[in-house]
Design goal:
With 164 residues, the chain is an alpha+beta fold. The chain has one domain. The protein has 1 helix and 5 strands, in the order H-E-E-E-E-E. Strands 1, 2, 3, 4 and 5 form a 5-stranded antiparallel β-sheet that branches. A hairpin with a 2-residue loop joins strand 2 and strand 3.
Length: 164
């Protein structure tokens, strides 16, 4: 072989190697997307199911009967949000009992998810910022995580109190 032919063969090998590496990188990135969807969709479903459970509960402990006249000040204080003595998941009776929830759930394919929830009062004008006093609005953030997810998935929901 002459020098020119050798350079052409080496160039062809470089191009072939570059093409193979590019294809391999694309396949790996595609698998990451598939894994994210495979573990992300059940995480969303689990977080949403906790929100649905909370939606079936009353807004606050004090409104299970006749609401007190001093609302919203009569609602549970922000420092006392969480399950009452003797209450445990899933037997909660009001929305704020989900504050501090930390459970594990396993899907039908055996993937284990850690689920955590926090509940706090917000103002309707700024529903992303917790406030230090009772209001007519509570927000729940439910986070589902799994070792195969790149980052945890958080779903939020805003509850409001109104009476007839």
């Amino acid at each position: 072989m002459q020098t020119g032919q050798m350079l052409l063969v080496l160039g062809a090998f470089v191009l072939l190697t570059t093409a193979v590496l590019s294809i391999h990188r694309a396949l790996i990135e595609n698998q990451d997307v598939v894994d994210e969807a495979q573990y992300g969709i059940p995480a969303i479903a689990l977080a949403q199911s906790v929100i649905e459970e909370a939606s079936a509960r009353v807004f606050d402990e004090v409104v299970t009967g006749t609401p007190p006249p001093n609302l919203p000040e009569g609602f549970t204080q922000p420092s006392a949000l969480g399950p009452d003595a003797g209450e445990s998941y899933p037997d909660f009776d009001d929305v704020d009992d989900y504050n501090g929830l930390s459970i594990q759930d396993t899907t039908s394919v055996g993937a284990v998810y850690n689920i955590a929830a926090s509940v706090y009062y917000v103002e309707v004008s700024d529903p992303d910022t917790p406030v230090s006093h009772p209001t007519f609005y509570k927000r729940i953030d439910v986070t589902a995580s799994n070792p195969f997810l790149a980052r945890p998935i958080t779903i939020s929901h805003l509850f409001s109190y109104w009476s007839r």
